[in-house]
């Protein structure tokens, strides 16, 4: 039988432990907010600075104007992807994410992702190569797998030295 003092001590220790766990979670939240703020600021800054140039009519040609408009569009799409990723994360945490799985040739998805990152790779002088079968059928959720591949591609390019090659390889385990 626990004495009143033992109960108080036990409760106090539990509260100290909960407080430490809350501090860890609070630090993780702060880190997450800082990371997201940085990720959001980059495309927003590109959009604002590019639109300022257009607004001040400081373009040299219609071609350059078109490039600037494309930059704003691309950065807007990227920003939308980030916001959607945040919303998806919230859905995952609440257990309310829907998956739409179907059998599809993954080669098309890989091609889209490579196209999406070609200019970024070119900026860093990184070559993207693939090694996949032409007819690689898989069961997957196209939206979610594209997110995964895009995140992997983005990180691969970001953390690869210039004048390097990234190899995206798919293989099957038909055992």
Largest sheet, strands/sense/barrel: 2 strands, antiparallel
Low-confidence stretches: none
Mean pLDDT across all amino acids: 87
Q: How are the strands ordered across the major sheet?
A: 1-3
N/C terminus separation: 59 Å
Proportion of residues in extended strands: 5-15%
Radius of gyration: 24 Å
Q: Give me the secondary-structure category.
A: alpha+beta
> What's the helix-strand series?
HHEHEEHE
Q: Helical residue percent?
A: 55-70%
What is the overall number of helices?
4
Count of β-strands: 4
Name the overall outline: extended
Write up this protein.
69% of the residues lie in helices and 13% in strands. It is of the alpha+beta class and 175 residues long. The strands form 2 sheets. It has a two-stranded antiparallel sheet. It has a two-stranded parallel ribbon with strand order 2-4. Helix 3 packs parallel to helix 4. The termini are far apart. 3% of the residues are buried. The mean pLDDT is 87.
Fold blueprint:
Layout: H1 4-55, H2 62-94, E1 101-105, H3 106-123, E2 126-131, E3 137-141, H4 142-158, E4 164-169
Parallel strand pairs: 2-4
Antiparallel strand pairs: 1-3
Helix pairs in contact: 1-2, 3-4
């Amino acid at each position: 039988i626990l004495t009143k003092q033992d109960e108080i001590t036990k409760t106090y220790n539990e509260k100290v432990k909960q407080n430490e766990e809350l501090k860890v979670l609070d630090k993780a939240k702060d880190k997450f907010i800082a990371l997201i703020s940085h990720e959001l600021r980059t495309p927003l800054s590109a959009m604002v600075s590019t639109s300022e140039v257009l607004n001040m009519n400081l373009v040299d040609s219609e071609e350059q104007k078109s490039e600037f408009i494309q930059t704003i569009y691309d950065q807007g799409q990227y920003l939308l992807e980030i916001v959607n990723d945040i919303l998806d994360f919230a859905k995952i945490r609440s257990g309310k994410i829907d998956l739409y799985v179907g059998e599809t040739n993954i080669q098309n998805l890989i091609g889209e992702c490579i196209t999406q990152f070609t200019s970024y790779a070119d900026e860093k002088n990184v070559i993207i190569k693939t090694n996949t079968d032409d007819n690689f059928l898989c069961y997957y959720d196209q939206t979610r797998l594209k997110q995964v591949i895009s995140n992997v591609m983005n990180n691969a390019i970001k953390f690869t030295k210039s004048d390097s090659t990234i190899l995206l390889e798919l293989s099957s385990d038909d055992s």
